[in-house]
Amino acid sequence: MAILQIRRIQHSIYAVLVFVLQFSSLQFPSHGYNVPDKYFINCGSDSNVSVNGVVYVGESNPIARLSRRSKTESNESHVPSPLYQTARIFRSESWYEFNIGTSGTYLVRLHFFSFSSPSNLYSARFNVSVPRFWLLQNFDARNVTDNNHAPVKEFFINITSPTPNFRITFRPLPSSFAFVNAIELFLLPLHLIDDVVARFTYSGNNRGLATFNGLYSRVLETKLRLNVGGQIVINDNLLRKWSPDDSYLVYPENAKVSYPFSGQIEYRVEDDSEGPNANKFTAPTNVYGTAKEIKNISAGAGDAKLLNITWRLPVEKNIDHLLRLHFCDYFSSQIDLTFFILSIYDINVMPINIDGNVYSELPAPYYYDFVVHSDDSGFMRVSVTPVESAKKVGAFLNGLEIMEIIEASNSVPPDPAESVSKHKRLPVVLGSVIGGLIMVFAGVIGFRKIRKQKPVENSDWLPILATTGGSSQCRLTEGTSQGSTLPNINLGLKIPLLDLQLATNNFHASQIIGEGGFGIVYKGVLENGMVVAVKRGEPGSLQGLPEFQAEIMVLSQIRHRHLVSLIGYCDDSFEMILVYEYLEKGTLREHLFNKNLPRLSWRHRLEICIGAASGLNYLHNGPARGIIHRDVKSTNILLDENHVAKVADFGLSRTGPLDHQHYVTTVVKGSFGYLDPEYFRSQQLTEKSDVYSFGVVLLEVLCARAVIDPSLPTEQINLAEWGMLCKNKGILQEIVDPSIKGQIDQNSLKKFSETVEKCLQEDGSGRPTMGDVLWDLEYALQLQRGANGIHGETNEDSSSTSSASASLQLPNVRCLPSLSTLSEADDSIIRGFLPVRN
C-alpha cells in the first residue's frame, strides 16, 4: 500500500511538471515571430563569424554540448564563405547536443564544404541522424561539393516536447570519417508547415485529392526551392535560398518572364495564419513579385505542348514528397480574371482561380501544399494550363518548393540520453515545482492583458458539468501548443491500456479496420464481450491532442441514436486512444463507391441522409449547447448492421456562437470539396457551414461520385458546382447514379434536389437550418413511399430492415455522467403524419 501511495505521488508530481514545462513553452501567436539567435554554430572554430548579418558562434562559447571524440581542421585558401574556413572532424560516433525549450517545428541546416586539408574532407563517408530519423545515409562528400557552391542540407523536424538533450549524431562509415562546417537549428513560425495537407494521387482507382495526416511525425528534407521567373534570392526572412527555375522548364518557348511587380506585395494575414493565405514567412516578396506566365493563351488545341508551362523536377524515386506551389496575381486589375488548371504528372489537380474566396483585392499571395508519391522516373512534372474561359490573364506560377518526406526508422540507434529511466528523472524539489507554478500563473495573467483579439484554435472548449472525485491524468491536464487545457474531469470512461492491448491482440495489424486523420482504427473485443472500434493516435506524440480532447468533451455530453457513442478513452503511458461502439457496415462512402458491396437503394439512401441530418440537428440544437461539427463528409457517416446512420469524428468540432454573436471566428479547417466557401473566405464559422457540407454529401449520395475529381473536364471537377449547374439546366437526372435511376419518384427527386440547392447557397444566411433540411428529407421519403405504395416497394431492394426511425438502444456501456438522461424526443418526427409544407 505504501509503494502504491509513493507511485501515485510520483505520478502527480510528474504530471504537474509536464504541465509546467508545456505551458511555459507555448508559442503564443500574439507575440509575433522573429528568427531566434540560436543555434548558429561555426564548427571547428573558437571564433565567431558574421555572415549576411547572422552571427555563427565559435565552439569556445558553449551554446551547445559537443562530444569530445573529435578534432578540428582549418583552411587558408579561398572559400565561398568564412564559415568554410574550418570544420569539425569526427573519427568515431559523435554528436552535438541542444537544449530545446519550446515545442514546435525546427529548421536544421548542416553545411558541408570539402576544402583542402590533411584529412582530405573530399573522401568523407558518413551517416547523420536525430532521434528516430536518418537525415543522411551513406553521405559522400564527392557527390555534393564543387568549386561554385557549398552544399547545405536542410531539414524540417517537429520536436513535440521540450528536451535538454536533442542530439544531431554523426556516424562515420567504416574506414572513413565525418565532418561539418556549420550548423543552424532554430524554431520556425507556427503553421509554416501544417500537420494535415492534401494528398494528390494520379494513378489507380482513387485518383484525385484526399487528406494526408501526420507531417509532424515525419522529417522533411528540402530538395528544390525555386523563384519562378526571378533571380537567385538569399537570406529571406528565414535565411532560405531561392534559385532560378529556367533549367527545369520542359518547353521554354511556352513561357515568358513576367515583368517584376513594381508595387508593394502586401501580406494580408497574420504571421501565424494557416494556408492557403501566405504571410511574410511563407515566401519573400521577391518571389511573389516575379513569375513565369504562358506566352500564348490562344495556342491551337491541336498542339498540346503549346498549351502549358511544364517544369521537370528531379526527385527521389517512389517516395512521398511535399510539393508547395506559390501564386500571386499581380497581373489582373480585379479578381475573377484568372482561371487555369494545375496538373501534376499531366493529371489535372485543381483549377486555380482568384474569385474572392482567397482575397477580396489584388495582388494576392497564396500557396497550395500537396503530398505526391513520385514515380520511378526520378522526376516530377508540374504544369499550369490556361483554359478557354480565361478572360485576361493566362496560366502562371511564382514559386515552387519540393521536400522529400523522411519516415522514422527502427534502425536508428537510440541516443544514450533516451535510455534514461523516467523514474530517475522524477525526484524534484517541491519548492521548485511551487515556484514554477507561481511563475506560470503570473505569466497567464500577464498574457491575458497583452494578447490580441484574434482566432486561436481550441480557445473555446465545450463546457462540462462539474463532477466529484479525482482529477483527470496525463494528457488531459497538459497544455496544448495553442495554450488550451481541459478542465479537471472524471468521466468514469477511462479504460486501462492493458485492457485495450488484450482487446486488439496488442494492436495487431490483422485487427486494423481503417485509418483516419487521427490515427489507425482497430477492431477489438473487450473483456465483457462488447465489440468496439479502437482509434489510436500515434503513441508519444502531442500532435492530435486537441482533437483527442475535443472528441472526449463533445461525446461525453451527448447521447443520440444518430451520433456514434463513446465507450471510453485511454491516456496511459502518453497514449491517445478513443473507444467507440463498433459499426460493422463501415462508412457511407464505402457503400457509394465500393463495387464489391451491395448497392444502396434510393429509399435506404434517403433514410441514411435523414439519420445523419437528425444527428447534426441534435448537435446544433440539443441540450449540450450548439455544437458545429466542422467536418461533415461521407466518410464521417457510419452505418450499423441495419444501415442506420451515425455521425462520427468530432475532433474538429467547435461550440457554436453565443446568443449575442452570429458566428465563431476561427482558422479554417475541414475537407476539400465539402468546405463552406463563405467560411473559407471569412474564417467565420456558423452552423450553416455544416449545412453546406451536408448539401455536398446529399449530392454525393445522389450521384455516387467523388466530390473532387481532377480527371474530369474543368466544369465537372467540383461536384457541388457541377450538380448545381445541372440542376439549373434541368438535367440533374443525367448525373444520378445509374443504379438507382429507375427507382426514384420524380416528385421525391424534385424535393431532394431543391433541398440540395438550398444547402449549397453561397450566402450562409440563405441556407436552411438543419431542422429544415431534416423536414424536407422526411418529406422526400414520404413522396417516395407514396409512389411505391403503402405496403410494398416494387422498384427497390427491400431486403434491408433499415429505418432511420427504428427504436434503437445504445450499447450497454458505463453511464455518461454529464447528460445521461437526455431525451431524444425533441428532434423526432413521426413518419406518415407530415403536413405538406411549401
From TrEMBL:
Binding site residues for ATP = K535
Under the heading CDD domains, the entry gives:
STKc_IRAK
What membrane topology does the annotation report for this chain? Single-pass type I membrane protein
Q: Which UniProt keywords apply?
A: ATP-binding, Glycoprotein, Kinase, Membrane, Nucleotide-binding, Receptor, Serine/threonine-protein kinase, Signal, Transferase, Transmembrane, Transmembrane helix
User: Which residue range or ranges hold the Protein kinase domain?
Assistant: 507-780
- Give the EC number: 2.7.11.1
- Subcellular location as annotated: Membrane
Stretch forming the signal peptide: 1-32
- Pfam families reported for this sequence: Malectin_like, PK_Tyr_Ser-Thr
Q: Which GO terms describe its molecular function?
A: ATP binding; protein serine/threonine kinase activity; transmembrane receptor protein tyrosine kinase activity
> Record's InterPro entries?
ANXUR1/2-like, Kinase-like_dom_sf, Malectin-like_Carb-bd_dom, Prot_kinase_dom, Protein_kinase_ATP_BS, Ser-Thr/Tyr_kinase_cat_dom, Ser/Thr_kinase_AS
- Record's GO cellular component terms: plasma membrane; plasmodesma
Q: Read off the PANTHER family from this record.
A: OS07G0166700 PROTEIN (PTHR27003), PROTEIN KINASE DOMAIN-CONTAINING PROTEIN (PTHR27003:SF398)
> In its UniProt entry, what is this protein called?
Receptor-like protein kinase At2g23200 family
